[in-house]
Design goal:
The chain is an all-alpha fold. The protein has a domain at 14-103 and 193-322. The chain has helices at residues 14-32, 35-44, 52-71, 76-127, 137-199, 222-237, 239-249, 257-277, 281-311; strands at 4-7, 10-13. Strands 1-2 form a two-stranded antiparallel ribbon. The longest helix has 63 residues, at 137-199. The protein is elongated, with a radius of gyration of 28 Å. The protein starts with a strand and ends in an 11-residue tail after the last helix. The relative contact order is 0.16. One of its GO terms (cellular component) is lytic vacuole membrane.
C-alpha cells in the first residue's frame, strides 16, 4: 500500500514519511545518547565501569567524521551535529578522567593510612594491659567474640533479607519505568521534530532516484570518503574494549544500560530510515557500508545486553534484559 500524505501543498508517500520519522528518531537517539552514562557516573562518583579505550576510539570516529564532513562540504546540519558529538565525547571523557584520578588518589591515601597503622599496631599491642593473663585465655576470648560477632551478623542478614528483596524488586520496577519512559520520550521527540520540520518545509523527501544524504557526491574528495569509512570502522570497533572489560571483570557495574539501548535504537532506526526510503539495488548497494556498520554495532550492543543479563551490575542492574 502506498498512501499519499498531503499537507501545506506537500505530498509524500507512507514510505517517505516513515523514512523521515525513523531518521529523525535516530537523530534524537544520538543527541541524548551520552546523557544516561554522564548521570550514572555522577551518581556513583566513579567511572570504573566504562572503558576509556571505548570512549577514545569512539571519539576518534567522531573526529574523523567531522573532518570528513567539513572536507566534503556537507550540509551545515551534518557538520554541526559532528561538532556536537565531539564536544559531548570530550565532556564524558573528561568526567571519566576526573573520577578515575580522584578515586585513585583516595585509594592511595587509604593504602598509606593502612600502612602506617600496621607499623604502629605491634607497639600498641605490647602496651595493652589486657595481654597479661593465663596462657590461651586471650585466644579463647577472641574465638568466643568472633563466634558471637558472626552469629550476630547472620541474624542481621536474615532479618534484613526480606526487606532487601522487596526493595530490589521495587528498584527494578522503577528502573523499568524510567527506561521505558525515556525511550518513549526520545521516540516522541524524534517524531515531533520530523513533523515540525516537514510542516515548516525544512524537511523534504529525497527523490528515490536521486542522491541520498549518506551518498558521497560525485565530486567528493577521495580523502573525505576515506575519512568517512575510517569513522565507520572506529564506530564498529569502539565497543570491543568495553566487551572485553566486562568479560574480564565479569561485571557491568557502573554502566548505564539506557546508554546502550539508545545506541541500539539509533542504529536500528537509522537502518530502517534507509530501507524505507528505497529498496532499489543501486541505492541499497550504495548505502550498504552504513547498513553493515549499523548492523554490526547492533550485534555488539546485543552482546553487552547479554553481559548485563549474565553478570549483572550490582545495584545498577535494576533493569534486566529479558
Amino acid at each position: 500500500m502506498n498512501v499519499t500524505i498531503a499537507g501545506y501543498g506537500q505530498h509524500l508517500t507512507t514510505h517517505e514519511a516513515l523514512s523521515g520519522v525513523f531518521g529523525s528518531i535516530s537523530l534524537a537517539s544520538w543527541i541524548f545518547l551520552l546523557v544516561p552514562q554522564l548521570i550514572e557516573n555522577y551518581r556513583q562518583s566513579s567511572a570504573d565501569g566504562i572503558s576509556l579505550a571505548f570512549l577514545a576510539v569512539w571519539f576518534i570516529g567522531d573526529v574523523t567524521n567531522l573532518i570528513g564532513a567539513l572536507w566534503a562540504q556537507l550540509v551545515p546540519t551534518v557538520s554541526a551535529l559532528a561538532v556536537y558529538f565531539c564536544f559531548a565525547d570530550l565532556i564524558l571523557i573528561a568526567q571519566c578522567v576526573y573520577y578515575n584520578d580522584k578515586n585513585a588518589r583516595r585509594a592511595a591515601r587509604k593504602a598509606s593510612t593502612r600502612s602506617e597503622d600496621s607499623v604502629e599496631q605491634p607497639l600498641l599491642g605490647r602496651r595493652d594491659s589486657s595481654n597479661v593473663g593465663l596462657p590461651g585465655s586471650h585466644t579463647r576470648r577472641r574465638s568466643s567474640a568472633a563466634s558471637a560477632s558472626a552469629s550476630a551478623r547472620e541474624r542481621r542478614r536474615r532479618a534484613s533479607s526480606l526487606p532487601s528483596l522487596v526493595e530490589e524488586g521495587e528498584a527494578r520496577g522503577g528502573a523499568w519505568a524510567k527506561n521505558v519512559a525515556s525511550i518513549v520520550g526520545v521516540c516522541a521527540v524524534g517524531a515531533a521534530g520530523w513533523a515540525i520540520a516537514w510542516k515548516a518545509g525544512v524537511w523534504v523527501p529525497t527523490p528515490e532516484h536521486g542522491a541520498s544524504p549518506s551518498d558521497p557526491e560525485p565530486d567528493t574528495p577521495l580523502g573525505a570518503s576515506v575519512l568517512g569509512y575510517a569513522s565507520a570502522v572506529c564506530y564498529l570497533g569502539a565497543r570491543i574494549p568495553q566487551i572485553v572489560k566486562n568479560q574480564r571483570e565479569r561485571s557491568c557495574e557502573g554502566l548505564s544500560l539506557l546508554f546502550f539501548i539508545l545506541s541500539l535504537l539509533g542504529n536500528a532506526t537509522y537502518g530502517a530510515g534507509i530501507l524505507f526510503h528505497s529498496l532499489e539495488k543501486e541505492y541499497f548497494l550504495t548505502n550498504l557500508p552504513w547498513l553493515i556498520g549499523s548492523l554490526g554495532t547492533i550485534v555488539e550492543d546485543v552482546v553487552i545486553f547479554i553481559q548485563f543479563r549474565v553478570f549483572g551490575a550490582g545495584e545498577s542492574s535494576a533493569l534486566e534484559v529479558v
